[in-house]
Amino acid sequence: MIVNKDEFFREVTLRICSSLQISTAFGRTFEYLRKLFPVDHMFLDIADMSLGATRRIAFATTGTEIPEEISPLPQGLLEWVRELRAPFILNASDQNYQIQSFAPFIKLKGHSDIAVPLRIEEVLIGFLILRAKEGKFTPEHVELLATVAEPFTIALANVLAHEEVVIYRDRLIDDNHFLNREIFALMGDDIIGGNSGLRNVMEMVRQVAPLNNTVLLMGETGTGKEVIANAIHFASPRKDGPFIKVNCGAIPENLIDSELFGHEKGAFTGAAGEKRGRFERATGGTVFLDEIGELPLQAQVRLLRVLQNREIERVGGDRPISVDIRVIAATHRNLESMVSENQFREDLWFRLNVFPIIVPPLRQRKEDVPALIRYFVELKSRELGIAMPPAIAPGALERLTNYGWPGNVRELENLVERELIRHQSGQLRFDSLLISVKGEEAQPLAGENGDGPLNLDAAMSLHINKVLKMTRGKIHGPGGAAELLGINPNTLRGRMSKLGIMLGRKTR
Ligand SMILES: Nc1ncnc2c1ncn2[C@@H]1O[C@H](COP(=O)(O)OP(=O)(O)OP(=O)(O)O)[C@@H](O)[C@H]1O
Ligand SMILES: [Mg+2]
Asked: What range(s) does the Sigma-54 factor interaction domain occupy (predicted)?
């Protein structure tokens, strides 16, 4: 065997470091070593002292034999193994007592091994083993192989580090599923209005949840589309799989393809490694495409293909990858009119629109407002650390119910939070809403017809009329116009008659 030692070291090091996949790198190294050694099999084993065993993490062979993965060892042999330092030959017929007792555990019969102990700072982490027919190896083989213990040690250490990362990652994914389930358990009964204003919506959720079809959620901002998407996922057979949310409007246009579909290594500048996209990551679960109306046209084409074939293609990839996913999309925009303006593809719209669910705005389900207010007072008090949730002032609920809620449930949620921060004890009167209503209404006072400022009486008359409209003509008592305006009901009546405002209760 004539070989330049430097050249040997260089070649082995390059090959064992040539791939992040240890099996690939190991195979390449084996191909090279075969030319120099009479080797039939080559193994990379971890000495797992906590397991009391050696664990095989890579092998290469000229034959087809599949070696066992884990070989448990008796304590005495473990002690012996732990102390091995220099590379050495084990012959099956060796008379040495330890080798005699070791041989059956590693199925050495009829063979010889060269074992190279791999150590990091004195601690044994594993072995490189070359196996051949008995008697084939010479001391020169051992000597040569001893020079490459280090590169193999580094390769093995990398595998161990990677294993650890994978364990942590899996644990995180697990935790995440667990937390998702917890969140839903907390939220499960907390779809407020599920039996009243959202009864029809929840009925559709129940129908569609067990199936695999695409669902389109439509509704104004803050109506609870994401809540409903969650409800569908967690009521579906995919509930233990991932729920991956994509906010289509939040990803820069030039990255959206790689974000959704992943990319191969070097697919574009900056694509250092391969990356799985969100569709791939959602396998076994649900992808929630929020703000689907914001998806650029190019990505719409790709999405259509996913919905039709359940297949994705990574950017820079040349083979389709099948994905087992369910898609739920949501938008607050009018997709149909976007189609007619050529901003949204018609074919995609047809695909998505198979099962539309419209989440109605809060003003169309006013009956849910009191329950939502009470729910958020409870919830936000808990979140804010307020031990005793304050009471809601008489009349406030009625007033809140009649408000228009352009920001829907989210606006309501924010309002309750603000109110709680301002009045942690005492009563929640929700005056800030009144102020904002006043603010809104106050604008037109500066001349509704554009003919200069109104005089004070006219402005007052206009304002009283507006408040009366809000209270549907109610003057007296909780939620009445007098309360809203902060004056005595009799004073209000007096002023109304002076201004010529009709008395009496109107029904809107
Ligand atoms: N029926 C409901 N019961 C309890 N909480 C709700 C309900 N509907 C919505 N919410 C809460 O209101 C807030 C807004 O809901 P969500 O984010 O689902 O709205 P959205 O329709 O997705 O809004 P956008 O279009 O702005 O994204 C969330 O905090 C959500 O938890
Ligand atoms: Mg949303």
From this structure: 191-421
